[in-house]
Amino acid sequence: MNKAELKGFGKPDEIREFPKGRLELIKIGGATVGRAIFEPGWRWATSVQPLAKTASCEAPHFQYHVSGVLMVRMDDGTELECRPGDVSLLPSGHDAWTIGNEPAVVVDFQGMLDYAKAI
């Protein structure tokens, strides 16, 4: 890193939309950071799986949960209920969905480079 950088999600470098959700990507310092907005009723298995064409989400995530509630079920059956202020580390192999009537918003520092990208 040779110089200071500042970017905001108000002007993302890329936007990917999918049923009941949206991903905003910022490229900064050689890394890609994503902000995902998952609307009520969003579920990975029905919204993103048709794009990913995998049995479960294979993207690892390191996320800060900004708002809403996101339920995650790992392929081994482990369940995590992620709430605002939580930080989650999710390895490959999971499904996720929103709980309640508020969008779940997460900032992801890993795993969004190819997320919701049509293959």
Would you summarize the structure shown here?
7% of the residues lie in helices and 45% in strands. The chain is built from two helices and nine strands; from the N terminus they run E-E-E-H-H-E-E-E-E-E-E. The longest helix is centred in the middle third of the chain and has 4 residues, at 44-47.
Structure, explained:
The structure is a single chain. With 119 residues, the protein is mainly beta. It has a single domain, classed as Jelly Rolls. It is built from 2 helices and 9 strands. The strands form 2 sheets. The chain has a 6-stranded antiparallel sheet, with no helix packed on it. Strand 1 and strand 2 form a beta hairpin. The protein is globular, with a radius of gyration of 14 Å.
Task: Write the topology of this structure.
Blueprint: E1 14-18, E2 21-28, E3 31-38, H1 44-47, H2 49-52, E4 61-67, E5 69-74, E6 79-82, E7 87-90, E8 94-99, E9 104-108
Antiparallel strand pairs: 1-2, 2-3, 3-9, 4-7, 4-9, 5-6, 5-8
